[in-house]
Structures are given as C-alpha cells and as structure tokens.
Amino acid sequence: MAERAEALASKFEASNNDLIATVAAASDEQWAAVASDEGWSVGTIAHHVGGGYPLIAGLVGALASGADIPALTMDQIDQSNKEHAVQFASVNKDETLEMLRTGGAAAAVAAGDLSDEQLDRSTEVLAGAPAMTTEQAIEGILIGGTTGHLASIKKTI
C-alpha cells in the first residue's frame, strides 16, 4: 500500500464521515428538502452517493488492474442519474446511512490498498475526454463526488 493511496483513502473517509454525520443529524423536514443544485431531495442525494460507492470502487479496481473499461458518455451518466432519482425519490434514512457506512468502508479499502504503479495507470473513462489515472478517478470521482454532493446537502439544510 502506497503513502499516496493511504492519503487518498483518508481524505475520502473524512468526507464520507462528514456526509454521514450531516445526514444523520438531518431532521425529517431537512431529509425531504429539495436541493437546488441537483433538484433531488437530500435523502435521494445521499442515497445516490452511497449507491455510487460500489460502482466507483469497481471503476478504481478496473483502472488499477489495467483492465479495458468501456468509456461512458455524459448522456449515459445523466440518464442513469435521472433513473436513480426517480426510483429512489422516497428513501429510508437508516438504510441510506448504512449504505454510506458499508459502501464507504469498501471504497476506502479499494482506494487505500493500491501501489503507486496502480495509481498511475490510466485509460479513457469518459468518452472523448483525456485518459484518467486511477489516482485522478479517486480524487475527482470518489472524493470530488462525495464532497460536491455534501456541499449541496449542507447548503440545502
């Protein structure tokens, strides 16, 4: 395990712990409040983040192993997000918190258990965009997605 990977995992764990604490402290009214950034309820946003952790951990693992990854388009990502928002418009807070805890722990292990060589591997992840390293995926997608949605939740509540 590389120091860089450990630092990334620690940074992610801190943002996920902040998200968990924020969501846990939200009142029922705050849980149902709609965020202006996403147009989704706080609960739906939290569920989206927690539900994304296994997918992102899988992406990180695939990037780290040098596997071929079919590049996604923004339209595919947007469509998936819209479907998730409709399907999980009314989510359970306790189940969502558990998903953030367990999925977050697994994502932290996936991020923290990598060598420098694995962190430096790259491939095209987003169709038409420059290749992304494993480290950039952890920083931009895993950590950036968590902190970005957390900021939206905090602004809403």
List the helices and strands and how they pair.
Layout: H1 3-25, H2 28-32, H3 42-65, H4 74-87, H5 93-112, H6 116-120, E1 122-123, E2 132-133, H7 134-156
Antiparallel strand pairs: 1-2
Helix pairs in contact: 1-5, 1-7, 3-5, 3-7
Description of the molecule:
By secondary structure, the chain is an all-alpha fold. The protein has one domain (3-156): Four Helix Bundle (Hemerythrin (Met), subunit A). It has seven helices and two strands, in the order ααααααββα. It has a two-stranded antiparallel sheet. The model has no long low-confidence stretch (mean pLDDT 94).
Give the CATH topology.
Four Helix Bundle (Hemerythrin (Met), subunit A)
Fraction of residues in helices?
over 70%
Category by helix and strand content:
mainly alpha
**CATH architecture annotation:** Up-down Bundle
Which strands sit side by side, in order, in the main sheet?
1-2
Query: Can you say what the CATH homologous superfamily is?
Result: dinb family like domain
C-alpha Rg, in Å? Answer: 16 Å
For the secondary structure, the number of strands is 2
Number of domains: 1
Distance between the termini: 38 Å
Shape: globular
Summarize model confidence as the mean pLDDT: 94
- β content, as a range? under 5%
Query: What's the helix-strand series?
Result: HHHHHHEEH
Q: Helical element count?
A: 7
What is the highest CATH level, the class?
Mainly Alpha
Taking the sheet with the most strands, its summary is: 2 strands, antiparallel
The unreliable regions are: none
